[in-house]
Amino acid sequence: MSLFSSYNPKPHVVLFPFMSKGHIIPLLHLARLLLDHRATVTLFTTPANRPYIVQSLSDDDITIIDLPFPGNIPGIPPGIESTDKLPSMSLFVSFARATKLMQPNFENVLQKLPHVTCIISDQFLHWTLESATKFGIPSLGFNGMSAYSSAICQDAVGLLPLHESPDEPFTLTSFPWIKVTRNDFVYPFTERHPSGPLFDFITDINIALSNSYGLLVNSFYELEPQFMDYLNRESKPKAFCVGPLCLTRLPKMEPVLHNKCRWIQWLDQKLAQGNPVLYVAFGSQAEISSKQLTEIAGGLEESKVSFLWVVRKSGTELGEEFEDRIQERGMVVKEWVDQKQILEHEIVQGFLSHCGWNSVLESICSEVPILAWPMMAEQHLNAKMVVEEIKIGLRVERRNGIIQAESLKNKVKELMEGENGNEVRKKVKEVAEAARNSIKDGGSSFRTLGQLIEEIHLHN
Ligand code: UDP
């Protein structure tokens, strides 16, 4: 059923994703979903991000407007328009702050667009929500996190500094079955008086969001009802679950049968041999030390499990010897891959993941259990959710800040061959079924999106 077929004129939605793959991808799925329901979509981006967007969405269907990315930002090399390409994630806040310099250009173009029903933009681009308010256009902030992580961060504020030791567990007020430590949270929110650039940035986001129409959450209600209810009870604006967005197909990203990339051909071979594969990838931003990379290589090699490892930013090379030694069982890829296509391959039966929220959702929807290895941002909370709350994964063990090869080997075997692995594999299939139901006609996410656009339409 098309949600907006009776609307005249069609709703016109403006989308503005933040400049990083983990934020662009879900909004491309949302764009596709809105187009499939007969909305008109205009998407803002920057010149360097345009090709990826055009490759994923046909520009016959959608208007893509690229605004120049500001130059001369201290610390940011010229030409870098995405956080995936930053030399270090320590530059994240400077990058995110600099996007505000695009506001005059954004407003100039916005004023000239035909009647805009609403603006949906990434909450990191909080200034777009301010622009919407200025022009009287309803706006929705897109939150790339789980409701679980957002709710826990909110509930823990104020409790964190009371605990001197970073790894001393304490119980949350609103979720008494959950124990967290200061290590699960991001500096400076672990401090008694948080301050500094990240704190100011998050404060600006919260102010802009509180003046917006709502918060879009890329999740489905049945996955995290208590946490969605908490957000809607304790904070403004109203939160709406419209995911998992990754279940919306982007036709241009679908595998082309007669032109398979070499890693998909390799997975086909493993399927023919009946060798289950562990997929190993840590998203688009994670930085991994050379020491840690060596331990991962050792653990994967010793586990004797077949694996496909996507190595992105790293300080060192793995060396040809390693690749020669593991060639029967393993494949190392150093290019951008279509992760969803890999996870959906039936021979992939485990995912060693940093637990970025998109990766968690993609793993759930592909019925693949997770071996959780959180690295930064809210990934520690996502990992907790995966392992303790929805029980679709196991967790690696860190000792002295590093995951040792021996320990990784044991966890990989446990996930791929052990009893605990079987339990979480069974559970992830159930959760995947609920995810698919939520986006079907009449499902919770389907209904929420329809009601939301109708509310905004009446509000206009
Ligand atoms: N991704 C991909 N190919 C790659 C690396 C990442 O398709 O080689 C996609 C992945 O499927 C996910 C997104 O990039 O949709 C990464 O988002 P996530 O939230 O998992 O992690 P982040 O990169 O933001 O840390």
Instruction: Quote the CATH topology of the largest domain.
Output: Rossmann fold
Largest sheet: 7 strands, parallel
Corresponding CATH architecture of the largest domain: 3-Layer(aba) Sandwich
Number of strands: 15
Question: How many structural units, i.e. domains?
Answer: 2
Keywords: Glycosyltransferase, Transferase
InterPro entries: UDP_glucos_trans, UDP_glycos_trans_CS
Protein name: Glycosyltransferase
Pfam families: UDPGT
What can you tell me about this protein's structure?
The protein has helices at residues 21-36, 50-56, 92-98, 103-112, 126-134, 147-156, 197-210, 225-234, 262-273, 290-303, 320-326, 339-343, 357-365, 379-389, 405-417, 419-439, 444-459, and strands spanning 12-16, 40-45, 63-66, 118-122, 139-143, 170-171, 179-180, 214-217, 238-241, 277-281, 306-310, 330-333, 348-353, 370-372, 393-395. By secondary structure, the chain is of the alpha/beta class. It has two domains: 12-250 and 437-459, Glycogen Phosphorylase B (Rossmann fold, 3-Layer(aba) Sandwich), CATH 3.40.50; 259-436, 3-Layer(aba) Sandwich (Rossmann fold), CATH 3.40.50.2000. The strands form three sheets. Strands 3-2-1-4-5-8-9 form a seven-stranded parallel sheet, sandwiched between helices. The chain has a six-stranded parallel sheet with strand order 12-11-10-13-14-15, sandwiched between helices. Helix 6 packs across helix 8 (225-234), helix 10 crosses helix 15 and helix 15 packs across helix 16. The model has no long low-confidence stretch (mean pLDDT 91). It binds uridine-5'-diphosphate (UDP). Uridine-5'-diphosphate (UDP) binds next to helix 1, helix 12 and helix 13.
